[in-house]
Write a structure and sequence with these properties.
- By secondary structure, this protein is of the alpha+beta class.
- It contains 14 helices and 10 strands.
- An 8-stranded antiparallel sheet has the order 2-3-4-5-1-8-10-9.
- A hairpin with a 4-residue loop joins strand 3 and strand 4.
- Helix 8 packs across helix 11.
- The longest helix has 25 residues.
- The termini are far apart.
C-alpha cells in the first residue's frame, strides 16, 4: 500500500518540478472563474513571480499551481509559509477579502472561552456525532505546500515529544505513518482517523512531497481528541464524540489546543502563527481566522422531503453549511447531513460555535414541522 502511494507521489513530484520550470512566463490559468484568475494579473505576476520566500523558498508559481493545472478551482491558491501572505500580499489580500467578505482594514479576534456559550444542541435532536477541528502552525516552520523535508521532520519531532506531556483525558499515543504496523494502520482506517495520500489538489499544491515521512496521527485513549501532523496543515487539532454535546466537545478542544500550544512552546520556545489581520495562519486562505469547522451529523427527514435545495438556502440564512456525510465532495445519501459553521474569518470561535448550536436547533425545530406537513 505504501509502496504504491510512494510511486504515485514520486510521479507528481516530477510533475511539480515541471510546473516550476515552465511557469517563469505568465501562466495560463485553467480555472478561469477562480479568484486566482481574477487577481493574478500580468502586472502582479511580473512584480512578484521572481520573489522566493525566506522560510521555505516558496514562489507565486507554486502558490497558484492548482489554478493553473485544474479548471475547477474556486480559490486556487495556497501559502507555503507565513511569509507567503506578506511577500505576495498584492495577490493574497484581495483574494482573502473577497472570499471571506472582510474589509481591507479588518482585524481578527480569537476567543476560545467556552463559558460564553449559551445553551447546547437540543438533546432530543437526532444527532449522531459532533466534531470540531482547527488548524495550527508553529512559527518558523513552513506550511505544508512549501515546508522543507527538514522542517516537516522538525514539526513531527516537536509534536511527538510535546504530546507525551498531555495528561488526564488528553493523554494518548502518537502513531507515525512511516513504518506503521499493519494492525495499527487497519485500526486507524476502521476508526476513520487515517488521512490518506492521493488527493490531486494536495499533491499538485506540493503537500504530499516525501510521503509518508514526517506525518502521523495522535489520539487519546477515548479517541475523542486527535491531532493530525503534517497533513494539509502542520497540526490539525480535532475534538469529537458520539451524540450532540457540542459544548462538551468545544471545551475539550479548547483544553487540547492549550495543551498542544503550551507543550510545543516548552519544547522549542515557539508560538503558533497568529496574524493580527488574518488570525491563525493556515496553508489554505479559506481557513484563515479561526480555522474552525464545528459540525454535527444530524437526521433531517423533513427537510429532505421538502427539498435539499431549500435546505441549502435555509442553511445560508443561518450562516451554516450543509454537506453530505461523505465529506466535502462525497455527495449526499439518505437524510443524514453534516451541518457546520460557514464562516472562518471575521468571527471568533465562540461566535461560530454559538451560531452552529442555534442554527442546528432551529433546523431541528423546523424539521419536525416539515415532517408533519408531509405526513411523515
Amino acid at each position: 500500500w505504501y509502496q504504491r502511494r510512494v510511486r504515485e507521489i514520486q510521479t507528481f513530484q516530477h510533475y511539480f518540478k515541471q510546473i516550476n520550470l515552465r511557469m517563469s512566463a505568465f501562466p495560463e490559468i485553467k480555472s478561469k472563474h477562480s479568484l486566482v484568475a481574477k487577481h493574478v494579473t500580468k502586472e502582479k505576476w511580473d512584480k512578484l513571480s521572481g520573489i522566493t520566500t525566506k522560510t521555505s523558498g516558496f514562489t507565486l508559481a507554486k502558490a497558484i499551481a492548482c489554478a493553473v493545472e485544474f479548471d475547477n478551482q474556486h480559490c486556487g491558491i495556497y501559502a507555503g509559509d507565513w511569509d507567503s501572505y506578506k511577500d505576495f500580499a498584492d495577490v493574497f489580500d484581495p483574494i482573502i477579502q473577497e472570499y471571506h467578505g472582510i474589509s481591507a482594514d479588518a482585524k481578527h479576534t480569537s476567543d476560545m472561552d467556552f463559558s460564553k456559550i449559551t445553551g447546547n444542541v437540543n438533546p432530543n435532536a437526532p444527532v449522531h456525532s459532533t466534531r470540531i477541528r482547527v488548524g495550527r502552525s508553529i512559527d518558523g516552520f513552513g506550511l505544508s505546500p512549501g515546508i522543507t523535508k527538514e522542517q516537516r521532520l522538525g514539526v513531527e519531532k516537536l509534536f511527538s515529544s510535546a504530546c507525551k506531556k498531555f495528561s488526564e483525558d488528553l493523554a494518548g499515543e502518537y502513531y507515525p505513518l512511516t513504518g506503521m504496523d499493519e494492525k495499527v494502520r487497519q485500526q486507524l482506517v476502521d476508526d476513520h482517523f487515517l488521512f490518506m495520500s492521493g488527493d490531486r489538489n494536495l499533491t499538485v499544491a506540493g503537500m504530499e512531497r516525501d510521503w509518508p515521512e514526517g506525518r502521523g496521527i495522535f489520539h487519546n485513549k477515548e479517541k475523542t481528541f486527535l491531532v493530525w501532523v503534517n497533513e494539509e496543515d502542520q497540526l490539525r487539532i480535532i475534538s469529537m464524540e458520539k451524540g450532540g454535546d457540542v459544548l462538551g466537545v468545544f471545551k475539550r478542544l479548547a483544553k487540547g489546543i492549550g495543551a498542544v500550544g503550551d507543550s510545543v512552546k516548552a519544547e522549542c520556545g515557539k508560538d503558533f502563527c497568529l496574524d493580527e489581520k488574518y488570525g491563525y495562519v493556515h496553508s489554505c486562505p479559506t481557513n484563515l481566522g479561526t480555522g474552525m469547522r464545528a459540525s454535527v451529523h444530524i437526521d433531517l427527514p423533513g427537510w429532505t422531503k421538502e427539498g435539499v435545495d431549500k435546505l441549502k438556502a435555509r442553511c445560508e440564512e443561518l450562516a451554516l453549511q450543509p454537506r453530505g456525510t461523505r465529506g466535502e465532495s462525497g455527495g449526499q445519501t439518505g437524510h443524514t447531513y453534516d451541518i457546520s459553521n460557514k464562516h472562518r474569518l471575521g468571527y471568533s470561535e465562540v461566535q461560530l460555535v454559538q451560531t452552529m448550536i442555534d442554527g442546528v436547533n432551529k433546523l431541528y425545530e423546523e424539521d419536525l414541522a416539515l415532517q408533519k406537513k408531509h405526513g411523515m
